[in-house]
Amino acid sequence: MTSPIAHFNGELLPLDEIRVSPLDRGFIFGDGVYEVIPAYGGRLLRARGDLNPPPRAMGEIRPPHPPPPHRGVPEGKPPPAHHPGNQAVYIQVTRGVPPKRDHVIPKGLSPTVFMMATPLSTPSPEMVEKGVACVTAKDFRWEKCHIKSTSLLGNVLARQVSADAGATETILFRDGFLTEAAASNVFVVKGGRVAAAPQDNHILLGITYELLTELAREGKVDFAIRPIPEAEVRAADEIWLSSSTKEVLAVTTLDGKPVGAGVPGPLFRRMHALFQEYKSRLAAAAAVAD
Question: Is the model's pLDDT at 236 over the cut of 90?
């Protein structure tokens, strides 16, 4: 089986030929950032032109020097995203390889840049129709969750809570208020109004979160970004998850209890339709461009 082609430090190489130094700060400290961008019909969803992580997060980590320029596509090798169907484009930049292991941020390193594209997994029709189960947990992660850091152990442990319970996600609370889920943003509906947690240092602002806020306003859905008490989440008419792979997905049970009527609600149906329409427009635009 032919190894997929990936971008690594300015070159396109078979994925199984890429080698990373054990001193790379991304490997030894998790000192790196990443982004995952869905691509529909070859068109990236909501991608910024430079494909860089958000400036606020980059300012927090003291970003390394700009990555090396792309050296071109080797003859006979397609670019990383050259696959049929929808793709998930993964981009990771670490601080690079220092001469020794030291916690202090070294100066003058060249970053390690990696990018690959894999088939995009999205919710099954059954998940969309029936919704999914979630559990809750205390948000025990650090105070800089807005940084899309490769140091994801806190999120891994939080997600494992739901995996052990046979659930799809772990919805997190900090000091009595909703933050997000282990690998998703969370939306809450009560009385026909949609709310999302503040875009502060306790949540990782996803591409899909931003898109849903815009689609809600364009679709004239009553929407607000504000602090959401835990009690409001537990009494919600609807709860949604959003992420690059989940798109928008209804939560129908929380800690074993039904959310609202225990089925995906009308506002979820509306937002799901708006999201699918947006994807169709994106794919159609890509087809015209080709």
Answer: yes
Q: What is the pLDDT of residues 140-168, one digit of tens each?
A: 999 999 999 999 999 999 999 999 999 99
Question: 84 CB contacts (<8 Å, ≥6 apart)?
Answer: none
Q: Give CA torsion, residues 57, 61, 64, 66, to 10 deg.
A: 0
User: Measuring CA to CA, which residue among 209, 156, 195, 152 is closest to residue 29?
Assistant: 152
Mean pLDDT of 238-263: 97
Given 107, 130, 148, 246, which residue is catalytic?
Answer: 148
DSSP codes joined into one string, 154-193: HHHHHHHHHHHTT-SEEEEEETTEEEEESSSEEEEEETTE
What's the DSSP call for residue 52? P
Asked if residue 141 lies in contact with residue 105, where contact means CB atoms within 8 angstroms, the answer is no
Q: Clarify whether 148 is annotated catalytic.
A: yes
- At which residue do the structure tokens 């690998």 appear? 183
pLDDT above 60: residue 76: no
DSSP 8-45: ETTEEEEGGG----TT-HHHHH--EEEEEEEEETTEES
Nearest to 168 by CA among 118, 133, 198: 133
- In terms of pLDDT, which residue wins out, 68 or 270? 270
What pLDDT does 2 receive?
75
- Full-model pTM: 0.89
Tell me the C-alpha distance between 150 and 22, whole Å. Answer: 15
CB-based contact 139:179 (threshold 8 Å): yes
* Measured CA angle at 213 (ends 57, 158), to 5 deg: 55
Distance between CA 259 and CA 236 in Å, rounded?
Answer: 7
Do 212 and 249 form a contact (C-beta atoms < 8 A)? Answer: no
DSSP-based three-state secondary structure for 225: strand
pLDDT at 46 over 50: yes
Is residue 67 scored above 60 in pLDDT? no
